[in-house]
Structures are given as C-alpha cells and as structure tokens.
Design a protein that fits this description.
Layout: E1 4-7, E2 12-16, H1 23-26, E3 32-38, E4 42-44, E5 49-54, E6 60-64, E7 70-74, E8 87-89, E9 96-97, E10 102-106, H2 108-114, E11 120-124, E12 130-135, E13 139-141, E14 146-152, E15 159-163, E16 166-172, H3 181-191, E17 197-202, E18 212-214, H4 218-223, E19 231-237, H5 241-254, H6 292-299, E20 309-311, E21 313-316, E22 319-327, H7 341-365, H8 368-381, H9 384-395, H10 400-417, H11 421-441, E23 456-460, H12 465-469, E24 476-481, H13 489-497, E25 501-503, E26 517-521, E27 526-529, H14 533-555, E28 570-575, H15 578-586, E29 592-596, H16 598-601, H17 610-624, E30 629-632, H18 660-665, H19 667-678, E31 686-690, H20 696-713, E32 721-725, H21 728-732, H22 734-737, E33 744-746, H23 748-756, H24 774-789, E34 794-796, H25 807-813, E35 817-820, H26 825-832, H27 837-848, H28 853-862
Parallel strand pairs: 22-23, 23-24, 24-25, 28-29, 28-35, 29-30, 30-31, 31-32, 32-33, 33-34, 34-35
Antiparallel strand pairs: 1-14, 2-3, 2-13, 3-11, 4-10, 5-6, 5-9, 6-7, 7-11, 8-10, 12-14, 15-16, 16-19, 17-18, 17-19, 20-27, 21-25, 22-26, 26-27
C-alpha cells in the first residue's frame, strides 16, 4: 500500500499532541496524531474519505479513508458543553468527501470565549494498523498543506482475493475481547442485509481442522474462539459478495467500540476458577449435562473427606444451617421420529415464539443481573443457525423436539471446544433454552418450580438460571452445585438474591443423601457434612442467637441511628438495584451510601443509554422515598471488564485502567452517566461519588465534566460530588482532596489490598487480607482527620462497615456514616446504640497500636461497650 498523505484540515499552528492540555489526547489514549491551533473558521477534509460519524454537538467528526485509516478531528476542548452552539456541519454521516471539502464551519470567536481551548487534535484512531512516518509540527500550516504521512504497519495488511464468484478478505482482528457475543451479533446484523453467504475462518488453524463460522450465527462465530490479533479470512459468495465483504470487514476493523491500542504480546487466558474443568467434557469430546446415570457412575469413584468438610468455590458468601435437598437435572425424553415436516416445523416455531414472548415479558420488569441474563437468552434464541439446523433436521424426518435438542447440543459442544471458560459457561444458557423450548413443545408450564421442605440446602449437579429464578427462597436457605463456575449466570444470580452458595464442588457432592444435616459456610468455601452433635449444637446456638438479635434489631430498625451518648451516625446501605432499595427501606436504612452502577453496564453487549440509566436510577430514588442516594460512577475495568469497552489485557489489572480512569478515558460514557444522574428527581436527592481517586487532578477533571453536563441540560441545583478513598495515595492526601470534595467514603476492600500489596482475587494471599490490619486502620484515621480539617464527613462503604467487630473501631477513628449490606442495617444500628464515643476512641487507639490484624480481632472480641 502506498503511503497516505493527510493534509491540514485547518489554517493555524501545528503542534505535537503533547501540547494539548488534556491527557486523553496528550497521552494518546485516543490514538496518535497532531494538533492544530486554528486561525480560520472551517474544518476541511484532510483526504478523500467517507464520513463515519459526526458528534451530535457538531464539534467532532470521524472519517475513514479507502485504505482503512480512521481519522478523528475534535474542534477545541470541552466543546461538547456548548451543546452545538457555534458549529455548523456541512456533511452528513455516510457521505463521501474529497480532500479539501468543507466539513464543519464554526464560530471561532465563540469558542475562544467559552471553550477551554480551541486547539484541535487530528487523530489516527487505529494506530495498530497505521504508523505516522512523517509529521509537520511547530510551524504555521495552511489548509491543504501536508500534515502527516501514514504507512500501514506490518501484519496489518487487508488482503482481498477474487476466486470465481467468491471474494475473500484477510484481516487482523483489532477487538480487545475478540469476537464474543456483542460483536458476533453486530456482524450477524450486518450480514442479514446482504444476499450473499459470508463465512469466517480462523487462519491460525491447520487447514484440514479449520472450521468456518456462518456470520449470521452469533454462536457459530463465538465458537471459533477468535481473539485479539488473530488473522481471519472472510469469504463471501453471491451477487453482492464484494459489498458484503467490504461492510463486514470494515465493521470488524472499525473495532465496534472495542478496539485495542496495540497488538497482544501474549495470549489471554481465562481467570483461575472461572468455568468448567476439562473433566466436564465427555469421553467422546461432546458436552452434555450430568444426569442421574452419570451421577451413579461417579459415586463409585469418589468419597467424602473423612472430616466431612467439603470445599468449593464461593459464588455468594453467607452461612446456612439445614438439611440436604437433592436436585438432579433429569433429561426430558423426546422421540426422534416426527409427523409430517410442516406440522413439526409449525410446532417448533410456535414453541420458539412462546419462549421468546416469555423472555420479553420477564425482561420488561426485570432489573440488574436478571434482566441482563434474560436479554442474553433472547439473543441466543434468535440465532438463525439454531433454527436453520432444527428446520433441516425436521425436513429429514426428525420430530421438532429431537431437532431442537440436536441443534442446541451441537452449538453447546462448539462453545466448550473453544477452551474459553466464559464461552463454556454460556453453554449452560443454551441448555436452559433447550429445556424451555422442549417444555413449550410439550405444553408444560415454562416455570419449573423447585419445591423443598423449609431449611433446605439444595445440592445439585448443576442449576440453570431459570431454575434459580424459580426457587422458593422461603424454603431454600442456600445451595451447592457440583459443577458451574464463579462467573456463571447462576453465581451472579445467587449473589443478587443473597443466597449462600458454593460452586465447582466436584462429584463428591453426589454422595450426600437427602436429609443429611449440613452447615454451609460459603464465605469460607466449606460445606460441613453430617456434623457431630456438639458441632451442630454450637452452630445452631450461634445461629439462633444471631437470629434473635436480628429480630430485635429489626423491630427497632426505624429509629434514628445514634450512639448511646447521642452522637449521630448515619446507617446507610449498599445497593445494586431497586429490589435492594426496597430491602434497605424495610430494614431501616437511612439512605444509600453506595449505589453500584455496574449492574447496568455488565453482562450486556453495549453501554446503556442515558434514558435507560435515568429510568433505573429514578426507580431506586423513588423507592428510597427521599432518602439520600449516593451514586458511584461506573467502576469497571480490572476484575470487572465490560466487553464493549476497549480495555486491553493488562498484566496487573488491579493497577491498570479501572475505576474513574476508565471514565476519563471514555468521556462520552462519563458524560452520559452524569446526565442520567442529574435527571433524577427530586433534584438534590442524588449525590455523586467518584471511585479510585488517586489525585486532585482526577477529581477536578470529573468536576469539570459534571459542570459541563449540568450546563448542557440546564441543571442549576448543586450536586454533591464526593470521592472514594481506595488508594493509599488518597488516604495520605485526604486533607488536600477534602478541599474540593464534598464528602469522603472509604472503600475498605480495595484500600486493604493496595495497602497490604495483596490481590484480593488471589487465593494464595486471600486469607491474610484483613481490613482490620493496623496499617489500614491508620490510613482510615488519616482520612477522617483530613476530612475534618475542612468540615467534610467521612463514611465507610466497604466490607468493614458490615463487620460488627470493626464498627466500634471505625466510629472511634472518626467515621460518621456506615453503609452496609441492606440485611445488616438493623444489627449495625442496634450495635451503634450500645456505644459511647469515648469508649470507641480509646478502643480505636488500642487497635492502631496492635501489630497484626489477628491481634486487632482478638482485641475487638474482648471489647465491651
């Protein structure tokens, strides 16, 4: 490919990106390029290209050249706050432009007066494909003068070959998460606009073993296991093959909002503990659920531990005492031979429509994780490969039920064969859909209700999301499953429902007989099987005492939270949904100290709109009935990735792009969330909290974004902007941060891992990760002191606020707000009512003088208010 010359789109002074007073551009987060400080009032095309997008405010435009280079031009800084004033686009999205054509006219005088700066970055947003080999900076340039010369990078070739009526194109995948559910669905959506058949193959495989994926099938594409940096070939056959090839290839190369900044240096493997082990694959290499016959065969090869302590992986923490209830997922019997093809096809289509309607109905009223899971099921049900394969089997004489099962199992096998733990867990969702459609075909109720005696700890080979949603939580007090993984939909739902749960417990679980006494300590990752009388009596006595304390605390939960000597301590709750808010109100919470907004952003294929966010925040605010609602800005990245955000794999995600760093790197997403929060009524109920702050510059950047969002929508009421203290840097400089923050709230989970240099996701050190370590307590004390200097209150919304041993110490250190799990609010309020400030201060001082967390806990257990 010959070099591509970009000419200056503006008359003005050309500078390197480092001269732009904005880290997003100066640090090349958006890509590489040059900036021009304009002296003219019109932005021109720097080359022949197609208009990919124009920002709604008219201040930015993105072009794509025929060579595949993507060029972003952003007129001025923070000009989105002008809401379109001063900008007049001359072209529309999709238009073809030639070098020198006017793109956007703007009022330079207005920008000089009202924008932070008028310097205009000209960015190559796909630097993994193009290198800037020459640039003109530190001089005056005119419109049409050479500004940058681009050359394609090695390995970034985009090769098209014509073979008869088939056109092939080879590209390198720039998607940081590879082709997973969301990009697969986008590709399928584009493919359905063309007549031609389009397939994708992964070139790294030996040709004889190289499967291809029909791009109209998301499952087939996911099954290819295509990752960042893989070379793939797209083949299109048909009358509009060239157009289909260009559209799909350009869509992938465009990144779909998930483009990585650079090619990977090493493959990315699933996290430990996620997904199934290789032993879940049958002898023939195909996947199927473990049914009763398999369980019997496994029993002979396993034995329970002699001490009756069976380990598992924590899916949802908590303690439960009860008896074993068994659930084995029995196979639904189907016959292979069908009636006539027309009858069977009509029956299948009717069953599919029934399930689709049910999913849509349930999704309309669901929230958080439940809604995300139902949406994912709807997308899988709409996969044309499943219906096409089933219809083909029906045409061969199979019954609708047998054809559907065959189609589903083939796709589930393909997902397991990728070796990707998260894709393998999606096979559970496919089994769930298999059962729902088979039950619809049989005319049965689609809601499989699991009925067990009260006090049941459910033991299962595996559970499906629809089963868990149908549990009678009045009878089921916890559950354990033989298989599964901590990232499965069942694990997510368990945590949402507050049920103690262990997963991946292995075949030994099948040896436990129904009715066996059990103690489930999910937080410790243990199931105590048939404990002796003394152990059971001790556990039962402790559980009963705890139950009675909770009953008494709940009876007094409506009282204002104060210490025995009258000092006001706010008792708030951590929330993740409107359901959580209802529970918090029932339990006497005086507000929400932490709304985890991730529930809206994770387990989905695209970011939520402003309207969708506003609706969910408003629902929670309304449920709280005027009580304060502290909304934490999106805290993802690291251990909570979102598939649609281009965050490259990191060697140490805990120290990388996470928390507010993600928001500042994606200002459009931050702006959308701020606008959604500002739209909640009544104005002033919501306060905004910024996660992972490490410097005053970050807080100021968010304050600027908040002011811009408020100005754009005409919001004039003051909105409190606080910060989370999660880094030692923030704790040490709390006095500086409190000058500009309206409040401080300590996230003790992250503060502990950063202070002790222990990854809370690493099982090798997890047992030593304790927020009551004296070093952490001293950082909390420093934070409270720093806030008090400027009259700002300090709260705790991390795990320590839910720990009764920690509460007196926290209050003694100066904490005046505690935000705990909703169910624990009554107990926290009851505990606070027994305390005096002087006793807490003396206790806190003694705790900070201890030499270890173990010593602090020993001290805390002996503390008597």
């Amino acid at each position: 490919m010959t070099p591509l010359i970009l000419t200056s789109p503006l008359q003005g002074w050309a500078s390197p990106l480092e001269a732009v007073p904005d880290p997003v551009f100066a640090e090349r987060m958006m890509g590489d390029g040059i900036a021009v400080d304009p002296t003219g009032d019109c932005l021109h095309a720097p080359c022949d290209a197609t208009v990919l997008s124009i920002h709604a405010s008219g201040h930015a435009i993105t072009l794509r050249t025929p060579e595949g280079a993507e060029i972003l031009m952003h007129i001025g800084l923070d000009t989105v706050a002008l809401g379109g004033r001063g900008f007049s686009p001359c072209v529309a999205e999709g238009a073809s432009v030639q070098r020198g054509d006017p793109l956007i006219r703007f009022d330079l005088d207005l920008l000089v007066c009202e924008a932070r700066a008028v310097i205009t970055p000209v960015i190559v947003t796909n630097p993994e494909r193009f290198t800037i080999v020459r640039s003109e900076t530190d001089r005056l340039v005119g419109v049409g003068e050479a500004l940058m010369t681009l050359e394609p990078r090695d390995g970034a070739a985009d090769v098209s070959v014509v073979e008869g009526d088939t056109v092939r194109r080879t590209i390198v995948v720039p998607l940081v998460q590879g082709i997973h559910a969301r990009p697969a669905a986008r590709i399928g959506e584009i493919a359905r606009k063309f007549v031609s058949e389009v397939k994708i193959t992964k070139d790294a495989l030996v040709e004889a073993d190289r499967p291809d994926g029909n791009v109209r099938s998301p499952v087939a594409l996911m099954a290819l296991g295509i990752k960042l940096g893989d070379e793939i070939t797209i083949a299109a056959t048909g009358p509009d093959a060239a157009d289909a090839l260009a559209a799909i290839g350009d869509l992938i190369l465009g990144g779909m909002g998930e483009k990585a900044g650079s090619a990977p240096t090493a493959p990315v493997f699933p996290r430990e503990g996620g997904g199934r082990e290789a032993t879940d694959v049958g002898a023939a290499g195909s996947w199927a659920p473990a049914f009763a016959g398999e369980q019997g065969a496994r029993k002979q090869a396993t034995t329970l531990p002699a001490d009756g302590r069976l380990p598992g992986v924590t899916a949802s923490p908590g303690i439960a005492i009860g008896q074993a209830g068994l659930f084995r997922l029995a196979e639904i019997a189907v016959v292979r031979e069908g009636a006539d093809a027309a009858t069977e096809r009509a029956a299948l289509d009717a069953a599919l429509a029934t399930v689709a309607d049910r999913l849509a109905t349930k999704s309309a009223t669901a929230i958080g994780a439940e809604r995300a899971i139902l949406t994912a099921h709807s997308a899988l049900l709409d996969d044309p490969t499943l219906t096409d394969d089933a219809h083909a089997a029906i045409a061969r004489g199979d019954s609708a039920a047998y054809a559907w099962r065959t189609a589903i199992r083939a796709q589930a096998d393909a997902l397991h064969a990728t070796g990707d733990a998260r894709l393998a867990e999606r096979a559970d969702d496919m089994l769930d859909l298999e059962r729902q459609v088979l039950r619809a075909l049989a005319g049965e109720d689609l809601d499989e209700r699991l009925s067990f005696p009260p006090g049941t700890i459910l033991l299962a080979d595996d559970l499906l999301p629809s089963h868990l949603l149908g549990l009678d939580t009045a009878s089921i007090v916890g559950f354990c499953v033989e298989r599964g993984g901590p990232t499965s939909h069942v694990a997510i739902l368990a945590a949402t429902m507050g049920l103690p749960a262990l997963v991946a417990m292995g075949p030994a679980l099948a040896e436990i007989a129904a009715g066996t006494p059990l103690i489930l300590d999910a937080g410790a990752g243990l199931l105590h099987v048939a404990p002796d009388a003394a152990t059971l009596a001790t556990a039962q006595a402790a559980f009963d005492a705890q139950t009675e304390r909770r009953r008494a605390a709940l009876a007094n939960a409506a009282r204002e939270c104060r210490t025995q000597d009258g000092v006001r301590i706010e008792a708030f709750a951590n929330l993740g949904s409107a359901d959580d808010a209802e529970a918090a109100v029932r339990n006497g919470a005086e507000g929400c100290g932490l709304l985890r907004t991730e529930f809206l952003f994770l387990e989905r294929d695209s970011a939520p709109s402003v309207e969708e966010q506003t609706a969910d925040y408003q629902r929670i605010a309304t449920t709280l009935d005027g009580r304060p609602l502290i909304v934490r800005l999106l805290d993802i990245g690291g251990d909570k990735p979102a598939p649609y955000l281009p965050i490259a794999a990191e060697e140490n995600p805990a120290l990388g792009l996470r928390g507010i760093r993600v928001g500042l790197a994606h200002p459009e997403m931050l702006d959308a969330q701020l606008r959604a929060i500002l739209a909640v009524r009544p104005a002033g109920q919501c306060r905004i909290m910024v996660p992972m702050i490490a410097s005053l510059a970050e807080l100021r950047a968010v304050r600027t974004a908040l002011d811009a969002a408020a100005a754009a929508i005409g919001h004039t009421d003051h909105v409190a902007l606080g910060i989370m203290i999660e880094t030692p840097a923030a704790a040490i400089t709390a006095d500086l941060l409190a000058q500009e923050a309206d409040f401080l709230s300590i996230g003790t989970n992250d503060l502990t891992q950063y202070a002790l240099a222990m990854d809370r996701g690493n099982p090798a050190v997890a047992s030593d990760l304790d927020g009551l370590h004296p070093a952490v307590l001293r950082l909390i004390a420093r934070t409270c002191e720093g806030g008090a200097v400027h009259g700002k209150w300090t709260g705790v919304c991390g795990g320590l606020a839910s720990d009764p041993l920690a509460v007196p110490i926290l209050i003694g250190l100066g904490v005046t707000e505690l935000s705990s799990a909703p169910a624990l609010v009554p107990e926290i309020k009851a505990l606070v009512a027994t305390l005096t400030i002087d006793a807490c201060r003396a206790h806190a001082a003694a705790a900070m003088s201890c030499i270890s967390a173990a010593d602090v806990r020993t001290l805390a257990r002996s503390f008597r208010p």
